[in-house]
Amino acid sequence: MFRSAVPIIFIITSLWASHVGAAVVRPPPLQRSTTPFDGQYISTSADSTAVEWWYLQALASDVEGDNPPANVQILYYQGYPVSDGSTATQSGEPEYYITINGMFANGTVFNFNVPTSTGAITTSGEAVSGKWGDAGEFAVTEDLSSMTANVSAADYGIEASISFVARTQHHFGCNATDDAYFDSAVSSSQSLSTPESLLYKQLGWATTIPGGTADVTLTVNGTKLAFTGTAYHDANWLPAPLNEAVSSWYFLNAAVGPYDMSAVLVQPVNSSLKLNTGFLAKDGVVLQNQCSVVGARNTDISTATPTGSYIDSGLTLPTGFTLSYTLANGDVYSFDLTSQGANPNQAIYHRWIGTATGGPVGGGQETGTTVFEWLNPGMNTYNP
Ligand SMILES: *[C@@H]1O[C@H](CO)[C@@H](O)[C@H](O)[C@H]1NC(C)=O
Ligand SMILES: *[C@@H]1O[C@H](CO)[C@@H](O)[C@H](O)[C@H]1NC(C)=O
Ligand SMILES: *[C@@H]1O[C@H](CO)[C@@H](O)[C@H](O)[C@H]1NC(C)=O
Ligand SMILES: *[C@@H]1O[C@H](CO)[C@@H](O)[C@H](O)[C@H]1NC(C)=O
Ligand SMILES: *[C@@H]1O[C@H](CO)[C@@H](O)[C@H](O)[C@H]1NC(C)=O
């Protein structure tokens, strides 16, 4: 399915120097003034290594025993988030495709990749529609409060119908309404290496549905899977594959009682200028929405600390994360995320599904569900 020298190539939400060399001139990224929030931010094509994708995630609220919540993640792709830098044209792979990953309530995983001839975004004001050949569509409403999505690829064994209603409003990764990048985390006079510059200035992230309710019906190789639960939808883009910018990337996301949250901790390639983001909302009211360089300050930050360990295919991996938020006013919230299963489960990319508990430190504790992932193209080792 995938091109590459890198023998993997699965994917990220949630969450791209280069073969850039000196000669390649890239157009400046589009800014908010010209792009709908959930729209197309950069040009992608089969002849470039640019990548842009729209990610939808749903987790069942009901959990059977120690199984992970039934779940599905659907990614509408233009290009490849992890690659050796060759273009789709050179490697004979499709530029446009839909990836579907998920688990039944009993924990059994399923994965599909559906190539499509096109993958196009159309917009009307802030309303955004995506159409991937005849195999899949999604549509986000003008007020960004809900969306629907379909996959209809019976030949590949997968059909899906999804609808999301947001309970928390859309946001960018830093506390800005007009900047989809992480540049505000670094000073404008700071000199950045190529990977750092890609990460801080060209890797875009727009979260349209940080949390909400999901209604899901799937037919997986003829077996129906339907559930209601929690919803999450974001989009990312970069004019190069992520592994040219990123050595290690943690993305954490959870819905716990009234709280919707996400956090990112990124180690750029050959760099100690680690990026942290934190988003936390309670009943839709934003408590934190920040991006920063790790160590630059002690409040208005989040920390993502891997916990536990297990060994799979010779790799030591965490069984969970402690995700803590220190707000600008000093209040601290802490959540324990625990894995109950992984899919994809690959050396450079794990996406874990599980349960989460937490709340204000010393205050009422809530329970919920979580997705957290480690993209590790740098093959960093975990030493618990
Ligand atoms: C889990 O459920 C799916 C869907 O019903 C079924 O196809 C599969 O065989 C089950 N797996 C196990 C291990 O029971
Ligand atoms: C669906 O069926 C095909 C053909 O039998 C099989 O190769 C594939 O592994 C199945 N996929 C899933 C997720 O069950
Ligand atoms: C999905 O499928 C339904 C039923 O066929 C259709 O009404 C809807 O317009 C489709 N597209 C989206 C984006 O939901
Ligand atoms: C990172 O450092 C290694 C070893 O010095 C070097 O081979 C590699 O080209 C560097 N990568 C980037 C993207 O600068
Ligand atoms: C985000 O920025 C606005 C305006 O600068 C500020 O009022 C608000 O408190 C900030 N929110 C958070 C969660 O930091």
UniProtKB/TrEMBL annotation:
It holds the Pfam family AsqO_C. It comes from the Eukaryota. Residues 45-237 form the Diels-Alderase N-terminal domain. Transmembrane segments: none annotated. Keywords: Signal. Residues 1-22 form the signal peptide. InterPro entries: AsqO/PenF-like_C, DA_N. Residues 244-375 form the AsqO/PenF-like C-terminal domain. This is AttH domain-containing protein.
